[in-house]
User: Fold this.
Amino acid sequence: MTENVIEVNNLEHSYGDLKAVDNISFTVKKGEIFSFLGPNGAGKSTVINILTTLRKIQKGEAKVNGYDVAKESKDVRRSIGIVFQMMCIDYEMTVFENLEYHGKIYSMAKEHRRKRIDELIKLIELESKRNVLAKDLSGGMKRRLELARGLMTKPAVLFLDEPTVGFDIQTRMRMWEYLREIKKEGTTIFLTTHYMEEADQLSDRISIIDHGKIIVTGSGSELKNQLGKDLIYLETSDNKAAANVLRTIESVKGINEDMRFLRVMLGVDATHILPKIMDVVRQNGIEIATVNIKKPSMDDVFVHYTGHGLREGETEEKYEKREAVEALT
Amino acid sequence: MSFAFHAIYWREMVKFFRFKSVLFSSLIQPVMWLAFFGLAMSKSFDNLTAMLPSIPGVPTVDYLSYMGAGIIAMDVLFSSLFGGTTLLFDKKFSLLKETLASPISRVNIVVGVGLSGMTKAFIQTGIIIAFGRLIGMNFFKGYDPLQTLISVVGIFLLVGIFTLGFLFLSGSIAITVEQPEGMQSILTLLSMPLFFVSNALYPVEAFPEILQFLSMFNPLTLLADGIRYFALGTNFSVMGGHYIYTTADIAISFLGLISFALAMLSIVLWRFNKVDV
Assistant:
């Protein structure tokens, strides 16, 4: 039997006349890694702040570890660990002291606290840095320390808000390994990210969120499979006309028109259908400039469902406004 | 209310002893006040006092001892008034987020910071009393050991309550303003009248009446009076003025400071409950 560690029903949240979260519902199962994937300003942070009781719930219902975030906030707080989007460890305290402080404010008994600190310092491989001031750690190490801090109380759910934003790929991949390790220990993980790869590599299930709404939810492979077996990227002299022609072909599941490319989704293996596609386009007097076959990635999934890339010119301004409002409040 | 305020207290003290420059200056500052300002001023005031006829039957107190009480009051005023700045920086660097997201209630944070400030004030008070003795500040003159002990306890109690009050005030400002510069200017603005409209450094008898009246409500006056009651006795003269402290006076000091601290506590809790992370 799988039980839900997080249950959200019809959640809505507004800042003034801006609807940051627009009637969303989802569940997170015990022991899974669940991601919110979306651009900055999509409403991810607002949801995480509501679930961690940092922001008062306006409309709807949310339960974490069986506790109502509105009525049982203290119990919710005791059940969770948080890694905030912005780095917030005390640079003037050592690795040990940062963890010790956290254990103390959660009223962990000394013996229990010290044992947990030893375990976690081992987990994040900072044994040699135990008594080093946090300011003398590298960026990745600081983030690991925050991760360890979030795990001090052995929370039922660990919330991570953009855990690897701004890090290089090695550091990020290392972070993912730690998160997989933590998952093995049975901790449920809820994370927000705007890195496609992060959501794809790490999560059991992903919700794509855009403009405060959940667009689609599923595992990475489920989402990608919905785009068909293969994708063909075509650059032609008349993309619009080419799209119209291609829609008549049976194995073509769908077409997105990008700025420069046509993204053709195929229900069959591209190697067999590609010659036919090229013939049909050319027969209609359209020149083909480039062709590219690829397997669907999370980027393609994202574009397919939201109708735009993570950031594009026309939506930029709107996102910035949303992002600013989310950050401010 | 849990004992989680201990965590806050622990963190503040770890950092107090870690920043050697802060530690050093907060320990050396009271000594410098006494050594430079105190010795220089007392010399000139004592010369003037010597020209005045002494009041028969009333012990005369030298200016250094009189001022010593004021220096304690002033020193703990400044350190506690600026003590809340730690919260401003915690807020600015998002460090407060971790604590505010935890299950502990906010009163723990306030109490933890308050108690750490109190500890620092006790250390400073101890230094002034000890160093003052070395340079001829006559506290507890003619007291037996028990009287001295009671007086020391009395002084520390007053200092403790006073410090809590000002830390709560400082904490409310810190949690409300956004910029360290803003905090700095508010504190400077506050400290000026507090400092001068009080009897910390000189008797208020020569003040215009309105200032005399106001000084009665100044926590600094209440503290300085209380310290003098314990350190110098109930009946003495200084610079030609005759001081008599009654039990009612010391009760007023205690009650006044307690009400001040409680009022500030409610303000800081009000401000803290408004803080969003």
Remarks:
- The beta strands of chain B are 235-238, 241-244.
- Chain B has a mean pLDDT of 89.
- Chain B touches chain A through 25 residues (CB under 8 Å).
